[in-house]
Known about the structure:
This protein is of the alpha+beta class. It is built from ten helices and ten strands. The protein has two domains: 7-163, Ribosomal Protein S5, domain 2; 169-273, GHMP kinase, C-terminal domain (Alpha-Beta Plaits, 2-Layer Sandwich). The chain has helices at residues 72-84, 106-121, 128-138, 142-147, 181-185, 199-205, 212-218, 220-229, 251-259, 277-291; strands at residues 7-26, 32-52, 57-61, 89-95, 151-154, 159-162, 169-173, 235-237, 244-248, 267-273. Strands 1, 2, 3, 4, 5, 6, 7, 8, 9 and 10 form a ten-stranded mixed β-sheet that branches. The two termini are 26 Å apart. The relative contact order is 0.19.
Amino acid sequence: MTSSPMISRHWPAPAKLNLILHITGRREDGYHLLQTVFQFIDFSDSLDFALRNDGVISRQSNWEGVAEADDLIVRAAKALQLEFSCQQGVDIHLEKKLSVGGGLGGGSSDAATTLVALNHLWDLGLSVDQLVDIGLKLGADVPVFVRGKAAWAEGIGEKLTPIDPRESWYLVIKPDCYISTVEVFNSSDLTRNTPPIRIRDFLRDGGHNDCESVVKNLYPEVAEALDWLGQLSDARMTGTGSCVFAGFDNQQQAESAYEKLPQGWEGFVAKGLNHSPLLTRLEQENLEKEKS
């Protein structure tokens, strides 16, 4: 008689917003130097993990937009296996809510949740810094999701400093288009000389997204969403994705704006979070482990 696999359900992979995105220069290798602010929102993909002892890693999902072998979730699990000679395997089920190419960080967040969850479930005992090093090889945005704290980012996005911006309520609109990050960053119209600012400057005065003007010219759906939302609050694009957002003082104001969405538009309301739901879940798991 075989025992049932240990299943750990509902690990969150939260979305992020880039509250600002300033392009301050460009390195000789082509990478852009930037200043940005990552903040999480209470809107997440969800991952279930069913452990197995034969070393096999598989992924099932309600979204089939990428081949299993190329999925950052599978690549993250295999990176843990290879680097630390782990003989355990896992069946991973992804419930996808975050739009692909929307600038919400879905793929990177899924990978980070896989690293954090399997480090715990496989009992590998890796430090946050070790997980960050693995995550950085998977994608530039993975480390901020692994660390789980709202962050000021510099360099090419790898230099992270925890900060505590205001946790607004946001209305996020999802225009029906996919934006190519490469196209945006290669555009001759992209401003690459925004003067660097300090964290205190952002906390006092805010900032902007240098990619917006390029994207608005290339994607009229995004321009229309920004113009409409800008009538209600300070509207901005997140990262180089298609999603646009605006902050409100409370949930009622954000919900009221959501109810005004033009027919056929998609969006959602979510709370800004400086402490990631993934980090909260891990803390709960560790407390339960200490009690047992």
